[in-house]
Prior knowledge:
The chain has helices at about 1-25, 35-50, 60-80, 85-90, 105-110, 115-125, 180-185, 190-200, 225-235, and strands at about 95-100, 100-105, 135-140, 145-150, 170-175, 180, 210-215, 220-225. It is α+β, with helices and mostly antiparallel strands. The strands form 2 sheets. It has a 4-stranded antiparallel sheet. Strands 6-5-7-8 form a 4-stranded antiparallel sheet. α1 (about 1-25) runs parallel beside α3 (about 60-80), α2 (about 35-50) runs antiparallel to α3 and α3 packs across α4 (about 85-90). It is flat.
Amino acid sequence: xxxxxxxxxxxxxxxxxxxxxxxxxxxxxxxxxxxxxxxxxxxxxxxxxxxxxxxxxxxxxxxxxxxxxxxxxxxxxxxxxxxxxxxxxxxxxxxxxxxxxxxxxxxxxxxxxxxxxxxxxxxxxxxxxxxxxxxxxxxxxxxxxxxxxxxxxxxxxxxxxxxxxxxxxxxxxxxxxxxxxxxxxxxxxxxxxxxxxxxxxxxxxxxxxxxxxxxxxxxxxxxxxxxxxxxxxxxx
Length: 236
């Protein structure tokens, strides 16, 4: 029983340590991680697991190792921000895989990407005909960026000499039945106004609203909690 309590305490401690170290290192999505970030994250997670199951009261050693790895990541991130050459070494440099309709076989081999995998990435990005692509570049994070030919890219308002109205971010004023006071104040409105708006869209109470958004024109869009239940019953 004593060992179980000790493991629980160490597990909570490792979670808190990872949380703090992650805050220090900064948030990065998996697709934005360099190879070093990926390996570093796996290593820290492995050390944290060892710390959580340490029964010989030597948790200081794995904790120290976690801190060292974390500060190494912070240091390399700082070096990358100061030096372009170092950034290319640490994070990797972009690699042109295709340009002017020509596939670069040597660069594909260097990137360890075969033609079939390249075609898969093209299809995932919505390009089923490679001949419609002008350029493809392998980014440092492992994603491939595609530039379609001018004749095959979507038409924009600028192409038709049209003046399009600028879109702006909408504010989430209600989430999970709770009013987001800060966002509501940002729209320049108050709770009384908001309640009148949601009532006009079938919500008698704020608690009945799953999500409500307000755009720059003060147009409120309401998603009710009850509609989720109705959708489930229809699917069943």
